[in-house]
Amino acid sequence: MEEQVERDSMDFDVVIVGAGPSGLSAAARLMQQANEAGQELTVCVVEKGSEVGAHILSGAVFEPRALAELFPDWEERGAPLTTPATRDEVYLLKDAEKGQKLPNALVPPSMHNTGGDMTRYVISAGNLCRWLAEQAESLGVEIFPGFAAQEVIQDEDGTVRGILIGDMGVGADGQPKDGHMPGMELRAKYTLFAEGARGHLGKRLIERFELDAGKDPQHYGIGLKELWDIPAEQHEPGLVLHGSGWPLDRHTHGGWFLYHAENQQVVVGLIMDLSYQNPWLSPFDEFQRMKHHPVLAKHLEGGKRVAYGARAIAKGGLNCLPKMTFPGGLLIGCDAGTLNFAKIKGLHTAMKSGLVAAESVFEAIASGDEGGQELTAFTEKWEASWAYAELKASASFGPAIHKYGTFLGGAYNFTDQLLGGRLPSLHDTTPDHAALKPAEECEKIDYPKPDGKLSFDKPSSVFLSNTNHEEDQPCHLKLTDPELPIRDNLPRYAEPAQRYCPVGVYEVIEDDAGNPKFQINFQNCVHCKTCDIKDPAQNITWVAPEGGGGPNYPNM
């Protein structure tokens, strides 16, 4: 019989998993309402990163609509929005040398970042979250960074009652080490899951409660991003560039961004759909060679790369959005998939989902609710919100790109936006992991060697992500069938994990007898979740490692 571990327990009114934009917005709004009503309320946020913001990565051009609802005086409070977007450029890269700048009249309205009735800002999402955490704590929220939520606490009937924090000080053999600390139970009337895209607890909840019944499968992209210091004469704060085309082929969809931020810095990145077909493709290497295109290189030459990171994004939109309520809790933000990919923006919609969640939860608790109910009022409020309206207006955006390709799909979306969403609704029902073709049917890609000036290798990139995990701990990348990578994936798909992972976690090496062996370098993991999404056999499950592990992004 398994030995029962004695665990401490703490009770709260609300526990929130993840100190990202949605989780922190929900926490702050909950306490605002409690303070306004003079009601005692206990709210706890747990964050697996070593500090708030350590695992946050986004472009980002930010719409402050939800922020203004939460803190109308955000400017006086010193929110880190200091660089207004001043100029937009959109390009179609035809090949490695040629690029066509698109006239504004041909750019879909959702892609415009200047003009209109709202100023948008080039920001660091990590720094926004650090600031939001300060505001939340000043309102009375308790935030626990460095603690990873490992399990959902549920009653026999499935009702969610809180979370279990992962143990600290467990060795690779699964046995307690010196200084072992059993994980604590954090129990709550309501638990909000705000883990970001492909949250490992959110994934289980979606399956447990069949929250995706009747929905298209969620679609994802991998976003790779670098932060550069550039010469002053090349810097134009607020310049926003987007583009598509080369180096991606017609079966591979995605686009790049390059934003001039504050402090003589530029952020550059590639977002690539994980519905790509060619198993020889490497998103990391596509990103590295992309920066050599003259349209991008002129902004980076003479500069110095100072940070690197990668993260999956949930980009399926409304057609893939699961039911967000279940007994005892809610899925919010990118854990559900609230990003509006037609705008390449998700911070504002994630924050709005957090605000709606906070209002629904507080309303229930203030009425005497002792928890464990399904908050159907949330669904009504969410579907009446401007964020939901945004997602509804762009429901066919991703399916159009997947069905017709970047150019024709873009034309469909441009027309649909001009007509106010009156074109027929489109759907994409093929999961991303099922899109891969056998390696023998695809062209092998010979990527150029990095030059160390504009393009770089994976080891130096991992170094810039400040990634660290305690080496003597159980591997957090679980294989359902340990033999499958070599037995099935290697002969059929040339084991694509070697290439889709942006930090070299997975390798095929030779053992002492000269036979291929699948090796997992989990210490490199930046928690992007790509492996959990793209493995063709769905054989890899990402779970949270010991709290505090992973990347430590400075201001991504």
UniProtKB/TrEMBL annotation:
Entry note: cofactor: Binds 1 [4Fe-4S] cluster.
Domain named ETF-QO/FixX C-terminal: residues: 452-553
Catalysed reaction equations from the record: a ubiquinone + reduced [electron-transfer flavoprotein] = a ubiquinol + oxidized [electron-transfer flavoprotein] + H(+)
Record-annotated ETF-QO/FixC ubiquinone-binding domain positions: 220-313
GO MF annotation list: 4 iron, 4 sulfur cluster binding; electron-transferring-flavoprotein dehydrogenase activity; metal ion binding
InterPro entries: ETF-QO (IPR040156), ETF-QO/FixC_UQ-bd (IPR049398), ETF-QO/FixX_C (IPR007859), FAD/NAD-bd_sf (IPR036188)
Key word Cell membrane present: no
Enzyme Commission numbers on file: 1.5.5.1
Keywords (A to Z) from UniProt: 4Fe-4S, Electron transport, FAD, Flavoprotein, Iron, Iron-sulfur, Metal-binding, Oxidoreductase, Transport, Ubiquinone
Stretches that traverse the bilayer: none
PANTHER family: ELECTRON TRANSFER FLAVOPROTEIN-UBIQUINONE OXIDOREDUCTASE (PTHR10617), ELECTRON TRANSFER FLAVOPROTEIN-UBIQUINONE OXIDOREDUCTASE, MITOCHONDRIAL (PTHR10617:SF107)
Protein name, entry field: Electron transfer flavoprotein-ubiquinone oxidoreductase
Species whose genome carries this gene: Halomonas ventosae
Classification lineage: Bacteria, Pseudomonadati, Pseudomonadota, Gammaproteobacteria, Oceanospirillales
